[in-house]
Amino acid sequence: MSIAFLHSRGTELPIKIPAIGLDLFVRMPPAASAGEFCLIETLNAPGKGPPRHRHHEAEIFRVIEGRYLYEADGRRFYAEAGDVVSIPGGVEHGFVNVTDKPARQYILIAPALDAEAFFTELAATMWDGLPDQAALNAFGLKWNVEFLGPPLRVDERPTD
To answer: pTM here?
Structure first.
């Protein structure tokens, strides 16, 4: 694996997707690892998270601040500051910030996703709120992402 020198100072402007309460920072783009992985930082508003979805990339989440309810393959569980959650590629998943303050996590995506392009296009797709399932899946075709349902809700309970 080839890793290029990179110094992400945390001064990048976020990609904002208000419909799902997301501010996203690309901390390590795919080019820095020859496409092996990328690293993003997310700031999730209270009660917000992405629609349930699946894709071939694996994701490793490190919760930095707050508490999340995750769902992976139908299992629900809480993860909080310090926890690491790995989601294999192809697994249906989603999460929601269950606190009354913004929550933050780092996400390593492997193989790398062009996160800047993906989330910028997703923001444009959601410019007027969360679109219906058909519109999300039309967007997802380009990126090999299948959107499977609405975001998790704070009132859903863990199964573990």
So the answer is: 0.93
Amino acid found at 157: R
C-alpha triplet 65, 67, 70: angle, nearest 5°: 125
Q: What is the pLDDT along the chain (160 residues), one digit of tens a residue?
A: 788 888 887 777 899 999 999 999 999 999 999 999 999 999 999 999 999 999 999 999 999 999 999 999 989 999 999 999 999 999 999 999 999 999 999 999 999 999 999 999 999 999 888 888 888 999 999 999 999 989 999 998 888 7
- Domain residue spans of the chain: 15-148
Architecture of the CATH domain 15-148: Sandwich (2.60)
From the CA atom positions of the chain, what is the Rg in Å? Answer: 15
Cβ neighbours, 10 Å, residue 46: 15
Q: How many CB atoms lie within 10 A of CB 82?
A: 8
The two structure tokens encoding residue 88: 């294999």
